[in-house]
Amino acid sequence: MRPLLTTSLHAVHVASGARMVPFAGWDMPVEYSGITAEHMAVRTRAGIFDVSHMGQIEIAGKDALAAVQRISSNDASRLANGQAHLSGLLTPEGTFVDDLLVYRMATSHFLLVVNASNVDKDYAWISEQIKPAGEAACVNSSSRYALIAVQGPASREVLQPLTGVDLGDIKYYWFAHGEVANARVIISRTGYTGEDGYEIFVPPQMAERVWKAIVDAGRGVDLVPCGLGARDTLRLEAAMRLYGNEIDSTTTALEAGLGWVVGWNKPDFIGRDALVAQKAAGVTRKLVGFEMLERAIARHGYPVTVDGQAVGTVTSGTQTPFLKKAIGMAYVPVALAAPDTPLTIDVRGRAASARVVPLPFYKRPKEG
Amino acid sequence: MSYPADLKYTKDHEWIRVTGDTATVGVTDFAQKQLGDVVFLDLPEVGRVVTAGESFGSIESVKAVSDLFAPMSGEVVEVNEALKSHPESVNTDPHGAWMIKVRVSAPAEVAALLDVAQYEGLLG
């Protein structure tokens, strides 16, 4: 077995008593003060996450846009320099190699942020698949970035004193170059929690300084360091799909309810024909949200049943700290996909009742 | 947190308070730390007869679900129903948050439980 990789903040996590677990080949903090406390801090105040395990792949060159347009489902021609969007790295069948964020750094330079577990696979796939697009090169630049997420309604209040960039000028899903705590960084108004916040790309050797500066600046609002456990419960409440759970090489963008990350007007991209055909024919199964009607948590892999027969599968489930309900997402036949449809889920041999609810479970209050 | 010397322990990270022929069972501080925030407890009915090593219920945290194993054989004579409504007590007061009381049917199984030094040795 390969030794676990460590982020440039590993020593900080260990020193602050975080519980560390192996995740996607990395030794990562799963929780500091507890998933519930961390989750609530992000919903009500602010939390800081080390997500340096995420991978970065850059595509540049004269035909970089054509290369990105081929491999990525969303329409990158609609991105201005300084703007980002969610997209899919799809197979010809319209299923997922991975999901990713596409950042347009310059007219012919894109930064892709991909899942830690998929970096090597994605890089190999992209390297091969961009060849027909013309003059474009791709580089796995994952080791050049530490990635720190500051999430929660107080994020801007915490970060603003540390930077000369006017954070109010960065719109949702836009980013800016600047400095935080005197380190050159990219500040992106993105996140994976359903809350307002920022993700900061930091040179690894500066990560500890930036982390500590943010933690210090956050004392006034009781910002807390958060682990991957809270990251998972937060993203689930916000119904953000997770590769390996909601999406993988067996599920299409349409089945996953991610038709909005598909550039339907693009003349071509990998997976387009399959998705266009599936859209015309209609999907046979869909990802839905559910909440449990009894005291039970339906977890990843539990069967959704009708008359004792498995007809679907739970992709994620938890007891959510903020909504205080047992919720989850599952693939079900379209006949069972309408809100309020009763579902039966096999919870370790017991038939437990649930009902379909609209997604997302949680949507942050609009700013006044 | 230190482990009380008047309790017995198992390698499955449960604690047992033995009073006469009654054994009171809960999970240790180590167990609750591993589990994280506990949200549900599935406990047996009074009167159920359990065998040592058998699953008598489950404990579920935000992260994961784990079986609870009977540390010894016997009849469940009392269940902490109040704990089901306040499962977070397992995190805040692990060695006070008892789950079941068992009337012990095989005293030799109790004698084989770990004492505090053995349990702390197991934790390293």
Provide structural commentary.
The complex is a heterodimer of chains A (368) and B (124). Chain A contains 8 helices and 19 strands. Chain A is an alpha+beta fold and 368 residues long. Chain A is globular. The mean pLDDT of chain A is 97. Chain B is α+β, with helices and mostly antiparallel strands. Helix content of chain B is 23%, strand content 35%. In chain B, the strands form 2 sheets. A 6-stranded antiparallel β-sheet of chain B has the order 1-2-3-9-8-5. A 3-stranded antiparallel β-sheet of chain B has the order 4-6-7. The radius of gyration of chain B is 13 Å and the shape is globular. Classes of the chains: A alpha+beta (368), B alpha+beta (124). The interface between A and B is medium-sized, with 16 and 12 residues.
Low-confidence stretches of chain A: none
Work out the largest interface and the residue count of each chain.
A-B, 16 and 12 residues
Helix content of chain A: 10-25%
Rg estimate of chain A, integer Å: 21 Å
Question: Which range does the strand content of chain B fall in?
Answer: 35-45%
The biggest beta sheet of chain B reads: 6 strands, antiparallel
Q: Count the beta strands of chain A.
A: 19
* C-alpha end-to-end distance of chain B: 14 Å
**What string gives the helices and strands of chain A in order?**
HEEHEEHEEEHEEHEEEHEHHEEEEEE
Strand content of chain A: 25-35%
Regarding quaternary structure, what we see is heterodimer
